[in-house]
# Entry
Amino acid sequence: MEKTLNNRAWFMVLPVLLLVAFNAVIPLMTVVNYSVQETFGGNVFFFHGVGWFQDVLQSDRFHAALGRQLVFTFSILFIEVPLGVVIALAMPRRGVWVSVCLVLMALPLLIPWNVVGAIWNIFALPDIGLLGHTLNAIGIDYNYTRHPGDAWFTIILMDVWHWTSLVVLLAYAGLISIPDAYYQAAKIDAASRWSVFRYIQLPKMKRVLTIAILLRFMDSFMIYTEPAVLTGGGPGNSTTFLSIDLVKVALGQFDLGPAAAMSIIYFLIVLLMSWVFYTLMMRNEEQS
Amino acid sequence: MTDVTSTSAILAAREHQRSASRIGWSWLIPTLYILFLMVPIYWLLNMSFKTTNEILGGLTLWPHRFTLASYREIFTDATWYNGYRNSISYVTLNMVISVTAALPAAYAFSRYRFVGDKHLFFWLLTNRMAPPAVFALPFFQLYSAIGLFDTPIAVALAHCLFNVPLAVWILEGFMSGVPKEIDETAYIDGYSFPKFFVKIFMPLIASGIGVTAFFCFMFSWVELLLAKTLTSVAAKPIAAVMTRTASTSGYELGLLAAAGVLTLIPGAVVIYFVRNYIAKGFALGRV
# Structure
């Protein structure tokens, strides 16, 4: 759409600007303020320069948490995106079953995140949870509070359970927007199932799938509540992702300087990666 | 003529056969997936109707001694049902604030070019990317300083951090789908901007507004870290009441499960209302 140049449009944006600035700029400035100061207690602060940033960037603890975060985020992206596309392709296109499928599939998305953690906590208990009990009954020694591997398995399964529906709904929205004429043309050309997917469905889903990947990337990189309730970052530190580590430092140990420096580095990482995704998405949009 | 009709009839019959054979197996994938989604929820439901003794006694696939005791406790204890009231009140407040503020902004982004519009749009989105863990402590200090700590308004305003950018994003998608000629025709017909916006434009994007409200509800309802940080007693959300009970009074799994089941209900009700727009809504109006 051709847009008109009108700088008075700023007035329409003003309420949003004030609301978000109040919530984003002031707290962010507080964080920046803490990140460059050192204290010995008693509310006395003095300037510490970039010391905290150096400490955080060189600490093994931060590297380990970042590494676990990246492994987690990319594992769930590799599972959820293809799985979501497959499910969306197999969904009915019309009829009553569409509504039934959509409502049931969207349900996990509306469960408070700590309840998601609680559900899986109960479900995976080795003695009285269905999942844990079944796994142990078929001879697998499964205990997510003791074995790091089991904890990882449970968290990834939980995230797949929780969020695959988002990818399904997005992919499905892309699929139903394809006019029937495209399929009829493909039929006349006697196109195979694979080429229909590759040359009609996938290009049409490109835009919504980019949104899906962007949203899943951002949210999984910020994940806190679900693993905090399920494993609390344990056993040991094996599932301590960036947010969990940050809350441990900031609210647990009350080390404000390092926590603030860590926050800023963390935020910059998310920002940088999201910017890359966003730019790619906008470029796609301009092409189409 | 008869040739043509018979050929097309054969084609149609063949197509019917083929689609029938495709339906033959493809329903299996969504069914298995939905089964996978429902089993943990069933387990929660199952647990909520059991007595504590039965839960700890061993694995039972359905409640052998069916009881509503956990639900009764929730509905008679003020800390529990106040938790629901608090959650609903800040979620509703947030929904109203977010949609109201986002409407004019989304219109501006979808219709006009102005200095710094692209940068502003991306800056708004960055707030959707800000990890709540980063903001927990500063939010606590900010809202304590302005005297709003432990009120639903504090949580509603704090959730604007990620809901307002999202609302602008979704609404902008829906608004861009409305042809600009409609605006121009209305102005020629003598409508003022506010009158045009409320009387003509808003009804056109009603489904978009509904979907946006749904998303604001969703993300405010599921968020816990900020809601928990900004409240202590008076405005504590239900989800936070759950964690406290779970940690202080030991192993009350039945109660925890019942509270969990009750948190599913508002979500399920809301999904039912937007079910026809849900797919497009999740695509942020951009398909």
In short: Residues 256-287 of chain A form the longest helix (32 residues). Chain A has twelve helices and three strands. Chain A touches chain B through 96 residues (CB under 8 Å). The beta strands of chain A are 4-5, 37-39, 45-47.
